[in-house]
Amino acid sequence: MKYRRLTKEQFEELHQEFINFLATQSITHDEWENLKVNKPELAETELDVFSDLIWEGVLNKAEFLEHFAPQHMYLFHLKEDKMHAIVVNVKNENIDITTQEGYDWLREHLMDDSVEFLQADKDYTDDKNADKFKMIEQGAVITKGELYSYFNKLIN
Q1: Which residues pair with 87 in a beta bridge?
Q2: Residue 141: which residues within 8 A CB-CB, separation 6 or more?
Q3: Is 91 exposed, middle or buried (0-12, 13-18, 19+ CB in 10 A)?
Q4: What is the end-to-end Cα distance of the chain in Å, rounded?
Q5: Residue 139 has what pLDDT?
Q6: What percent of the chain has pLDDT over 90?
Q7: What's the pLDDT score for residue 69?
Q8: Over the range 20-37, which residues count as b (16 or more CB within 10 Å of their CB) and which as e?
């Protein structure tokens, strides 16, 4: 398995897609029920293959990631050949931008000396989707890029 198995909730949400996936494998509902009972290791393999297919599709489409920490906001634009990062650092340890109060403070104090902006490009490794997945596993979330666009305009 290249990524990680989808959660029970994700499988439930993708129920119809999973049925379609099994159909492409020529596995009927009755055969699936039989597999789960009599060949659980094969059923597990099918779940893993489906999970990887879903992750591949999601990662191929992802254009922006965001990751918040108490004093840092990491905004990534996932370009074709590299990713561009904008990092917002809050140098006041009493501010936690993962809370509503801290985030509101940041919005009101963007141009203070206690707020620092950094940006950099980073090349992907040989496996671009694995790079994206690793960031998601570390807490980043896929977004539409509104925050990235805002800060990109602000600092460029």
Answers
A1: 74, 118
A2: 65, 66, 67
A3: exposed
A4: 41
A5: 95
A6: 97
A7: 96
A8: ebbeeeebeeeebeebee
Residue 110 to residue 107: CA distance in whole angstroms: 6
**What is the predicted pLDDT for the residue at 8?**
94
E strands, the chain, in order: 64-69, 72-78, 82-90, 115-123, 141-143
Give the pLDDT confidence of 72-118 residue by residue, as tens digits.
Answer: 999 999 999 999 999 999 999 999 999 999 999 999 999 999 999 99
In 3D, which of 59, 33, 62 has the Cα closest to residue 46?
Answer: 33
- What is 52-92 written as a DSSP string? HHHHHHHHHH--EEEEEETTEEEEEEE-SSEEEEEEEEE--
